[in-house]
Design brief:
CATH superfamily of the largest domain: nicotinate phosphoribosyltransferase
Strand content: 15-25%
CATH topology of the largest domain: nicotinate phosphoribosyltransferase
Number of helices: 17
Helix content: 25-40%
CATH architecture of the largest domain: Alpha-Beta Barrel
Shape: elongated
Length: 436
């Protein structure tokens, strides 16, 4: 991805930093200020893409040519040999987190740390948003197959791909997006479209031809008459064709699922699964749990996070040249210093509370933010997506029942340590009384 995927002000600030020789070490942190309504937690995602971006970030000749019409030669010279050589600390992907908790920290020369701001936010925000949305369906229907169907309505190709990754990381069974299968190693699933049936003069011929090409596949029932189509599937099976499943995509899914299940069972197809799709989200899935539906395809509501399509996230300067930095803007104040999140659990291993303190603190609890990049190089190879998914599922197991609900807001205790409060007061005194 182009290094120009940035906001203009990152380049204008870079010019001023270079002019003033402000190139000492800065610490920036990415966090979410508050959780959206009906989100009891968030799932950290997108770190692998951030590390890829930082490790490979360079400026191409045509990009430098473009910038040379905007910025002086010394800026172009700086960018000519640009390489990110800073440090990155982060929460592992799949970690559950809460408001104000830094999930990523950049420690690097100020111009570098500032320049990468927008792309880092772009990646972490989107994948975390989608993973957190997907988690709600996974917790609602942990024993059902959940498949990402969202590419066609995603906000661009990259969004579709990263939504497939984020939803699988969050516990989905797979995706319909083929490139996501190749790129990330995600299982891919597919059925058939209504157009395949419509292209045939007879629905039975359509089913037979598809079963011939793809034994054990899933047939779409609702192009014309759903229950009549189910009877045709039974007749097809009696001809000797192997049918793995059927899909319902419209109408009263609960009613049709019950009728189709009865038809299949009466025809001896008790092992043939029923898969449902059609503008579903976690609430619709929850309503259909008592129906004989074995899996769900979830698209638009997932890839757009339809109910809450953004997170109130930020990437803020916390320290420069050893000096704590604190934004005091009304409603957007930040806590200064290089921070760590300490997680405490109860005797059953369930989340009890988190404490945000300074990295130098020695509080009890699990430290959630750890080193992942040194001098611009990954400390570990890219983690397989299946391993990330396992980690996420382990995180779900630590959720108390109150945080697993999709229809109620329950606050997890997140405390700010006394060390940070004291540091904030010292920082405020310097900012308000700079001559004292």
């Amino acid at each position: 991805m182009s290094a120009l995927l940035a906001d203009l002000y990152e380049f204008t600030m870079l010019q001023s930093y270079l002019e003033q020789n402000m190139t000492k070490t800065a610490v920036f942190e990415f966090f979410v200020r508050k959780l959206p309504p009906n989100r009891n937690f968030l799932v950290a995602a997108g770190l692998e893409e951030v590390l890829d971006f930082l490790e490979n970030m360079t400026f191409l000749e045509e990009e430098l040519d473009y910038l040379s019409g905007i910025f002086p030669a010394f800026v172009i010279d700086y960018l000519q040999g640009f390489r990110f050589d800073g440090e990155v600390h982060a929460m592992a992907e799949g970690t559950i987190f809460f408001q104000n908790e830094p999930i990523l920290r950049i420690t690097a020369p100020l111009p570098q740390a500032q320049l990468v701001e927008s792309r880092i936010m772009n990646l972490l925000h989107f994948e975390t948003l989608i993973a957190s949305k997907a988690a709600r369906s996974v917790l609602t229907a942990p024993d059902r197959r959940l498949v990402d169907f969202g590419l066609r309505r995603a906000h661009g190709a990259e969004a579709g791909l990263l939504a497939a990754r984020a939803s699988y990381l969050a516990g989905f069974s797979g995706t319909a997006t083929v490139l996501a299968g190749m790129k990330f190693g995600i299982p891919i699933f597919g059925t058939m479209a209504h157009s395949f049936v419509e292209a045939h003069e007879d629905e039975m011929d359509a089913f037979r031809n598809f079963a011939r090409s793809h034994p054990g596949s899933t047939l779409l029932l609702d192009t014309f008459d759903t229950e009549l189509a189910a009877e045709k599937v039974v007749a097809l099976a009696r001809e000797g064709w192997k049918i793995g499943g059927v899909r319902l995509d419209s109408g009263d899914l609960a009613m049709h699922a019950g009728k189709v299940r009865s038809i299949l069972d009466a025809g001896g197809l008790r092992d043939t699964v029923i898969f449902a799709s059609g503008n579903l989200d976690e609430y619709a899935v929850n309503r259909l749990l008592d129906c004989p539906i074995d899996g769900f395809g979830i698209g638009t509501a997932l890839v757009t996070s339809e109910d809450h399509p953004m997170l109130d996230c930020a990437y803020k300067l916390q320290e420069y040249d050893g000096r704590p930095c604190r934004k005091r803007s009304e409603g957007k104040a930040t806590w200064p210093g290089t921070k760590q999140v300490f997680r405490l659990r109860d005797s059953r291993g369930k989340l009890e509370k988190d404490v945000i303190s300074l990295e130098c603190d020695d509080l009890e609890g699990e430290r959630l933010v750890g080193p992942v990049m040194h001098e611009g190089k990954r400390l570990h190879p890219r983690t397989p997506i299946a391993r990330l998914r396992e980690r996420t599922m382990q995180n779900y197991a630590s959720l108390p029942e109150s945080l697993r609900k999709i229809d109620a807001e329950n606050a997890h205790p997140v405390e700010i340590s006394q060390l940070i409060h004291d540091l904030s007061k010292r920082a405020d005194r310097r900012e308000i009384h700079p001559l004292s």
